[in-house]
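User: Please predict the structure of the protein below. I'd like the answer in structure-token form so I can feed it into my own downstream comparison script.

Assistant: Understood. Taking the following sequence of 168 residues as input:
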Amino acid sequence: MKKKPSPKKPFSTALSVKEHGLAPILNAAYLLTDRAYARIDGSPKARLTVTLRAKDAKDAAGLGAEFERTLRTQELRWAQAEANRGLRERVARQGLLIAAGLAPAAPASAPAPAPGGGEPLSAEQQAEIDRLIAEVEVEIKDLKKKPAGADPENVRATWEEKHGEAGS
């Protein structure tokens, strides 16, 4: 007869930070804290030991395998986030400039800097990004044209509008 897994016996693994990355290791451990207590020891620059102790006996059996799957998922997630960081920064910067009314005219012929320092975007990719940005600009203009919704509690009123002039 098989023994039931015990929450007293923890799962522990040593991981190279250089190989897996600090953020994926920490996030994988954090994502399992609903089912296990996580302890992380070691050097955040070299090697970490992740120890997970199940909160409930039913969660103890697959804890190691679940951590490994979660770690692989986090590695992929962080690699993808790093690869498209330049693109996300550009889109956010452009959105802020548009919202502030300071958006410069985009040069049509200059290729956009590549996300993550890779090759420049193709003309097709740049055209898609420009189309999406133009779409958002139109939506913002439409929103600014629409009258504001009802304000039954007069939340948008200034202090002076509600209580009169400060010196009165």
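That's the full token string. The radius of gyration is 26 Å.
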